[in-house]
Amino acid sequence: MNLKDLTPDELVAFVRELGEPAFRARQLLRWIYTARETDFERMTNLSLKLRSRLREKAEIPELQLKEELHSEQETTKYLFTLPDGEVIESVRMHYLGEDLGPGRVAVCISTQVGCAMACDFCASGKLGLRRNLATWEIVDQVLQIQKRLDEQGERVANVVFMGIGEPLHNYRNTLRAVRMINSPEGLGIGMRHLTVSTSGLVPRIRDLAAEKLPLRLAISLHATNDALREKIMPVNRKWKLTALLEACREYQEATGRRVTFEYVLLDGINDSVEEAHELVRLLSGMHSLVNLIPWNPIEGVRYKRSRPARVRAFQEVVEQSGIKCTVRQEKGGDIAAACGQLRLSDLKR
Ligand code: SAH
User: Fold this and answer.
1) How does pLDDT run across 278-289, given as a tens digit for each residue?
2) Which positions ≥6 away from 95 have C-beta within 8 Å?
3) Which end of the chain is more exposed for a tag (fewer CB within 10 A), N or C?
4) Going by CA atoms, what residue is nearest to atom 3 of ligand 1?
5) What is the pLDDT, as a whole number, of residue 102?
6) Interhelix angle 135-150/171-182, nearest 10 degrees
7) Number of domains in the chain
8) Which residues are known to be catalytic?
9) Domain of 43: which CATH number?
């Protein structure tokens, strides 16, 4: 049994099966998530007998660090190897729209190996989807990064599900991971500091709304009409903008949370002032935040990033409407810390 893949309740059931009282599960959780221990032998408040049963019946695996790249802009990219040899990436940032404060960092984590969404401008989908990540493989990205921060006295304070993969395409494990990262018995990071980003899987957004969690939702919008969105994001063939925005309104009503709309600016494709006005129209009546993202170039993809003057003009239109609009500060471009670039270049190597 992989103890890291169990929720606190499931771990209680597991220790009961071993004939042990429920508090053993709490002890194990403290060892795993607070002490960051993986060796049963060192879990000295467990009886020798229990430790040897656990050695026989259970394991506490870890993601293996394959490569670590430091950017000059306080961004670190981690490439992790999974037990089956697949590779995923996670990013650590000291900045997330605003400074997080001293000793506090944000991490961006993956939910799948590869991605099925095939967005035209994104490196993650270029090789398709290999598989979903297990719950523990999602959570362990945060745990492994936190473990490396322990020495410096730094703490992961925010988690964004914006790495490789479509979180809502791996709905079950993403949600289990959200709960584990949030649980006081797990990593104890407030739900309000967790953001799930989606390309727009409408039925799953509805499911998530029904969970009524104070979880932040980000939508990768990137276009203001169906014709263009379909061209750059195939997911829009199935779920159109109207349905997507309706699901966002539902999410907002159910959770009381402001919805973030991400908008990657592609030169001459989706960055006109007219489109900025159209965006404002689409979002009217919704409590939202627009995050403009400078596009990170990908080898072999023909787009260009918007020029700063066009970014500013776009931002001004949105802000003047009263919608808060930030421009994502670029960090880590020098280490290919953008959107599946590192995994792709690692696979090529
Ligand atoms: N699949 C989810 C989460 C992962 S992508 C989603 O689509 O939201 C995280 C964000 O990065 C998305 O907004 C995505 O559109 C954006 N993105 C992808 N490739 C990019 C690139 N090359 N430059 C800038 N942003 C990119």
Assistant:
1) 999 999 999 999
2) 74, 106, 329, 331
3) C
4) 162
5) 82
6) 30
7) 2
8) 89, 339
9) 1.10.150.530
